[in-house]
Structure formats: structure tokens, C-alpha cells
Amino acid sequence: MIIVPIKENESIDKALKKFKKKFERTGVVRELRRRKTFEKPSVARRQEIIHARYVDQLRRTNTL
């Protein structure tokens, strides 16, 4: 459960903004979207490898 402390004369808009930020940091929505469809472990591993290659290529081009 997310608790957002509200100060004495704080507006509801600010409190809502704090709540949204905390909720986003928890990663609940991201986790729900990830679990929406099943992904085989081999496919997930392949995606990790492709992403690692991409990141490595970006780092190499930025250092030159």
C-alpha cells in the first residue's frame, strides 16, 4: 500500500502528483504488462543478448 504524507495546506494536485510518482516507481503497471503474455525463456534470453549487443555497440561508438 502506498502512503503519501500530505502537509497542512498542500493542494490535492500536489498530493496526486506525489502518489503517481510513487506508484510509477513501484513498477506495478510495468510488471502487469510484462505478465500479460507468456514469453518462453529462450525468447527472453535471446532478447537479452540482442539488447546487450546493442548497448555494447553504443558504448563503443561513444568512446571513439
Shape: elongated
SS element count, helices: 3
Tell me the series of helices and strands, N- to C-terminal.
HHH
Uncertain runs with pLDDT below 50, 5 residues or more? none
Strand percentage = under 5%
How many domains? The number is 1
Largest beta-sheet characterization? none
Distance between the termini: 47 Å
Provide the gyration radius in Å. 20 Å
Q: What is the arithmetic mean of pLDDT?
A: 92
Number of strands: 0
- Structural classification: mainly alpha
DSSP helix fraction: over 70%
Would you give an account of this structure?
By secondary structure, this protein is mainly alpha-helical. The chain has one domain (about 10-64). It is about 70% helix and about 0% strand. It contains three helices and no strands. The longest helix is centred in the last third of the chain and has 23 residues, at about 40-64. It starts with 11 loop residues before the first helix and ends with a helix. The mean pLDDT is about 90.
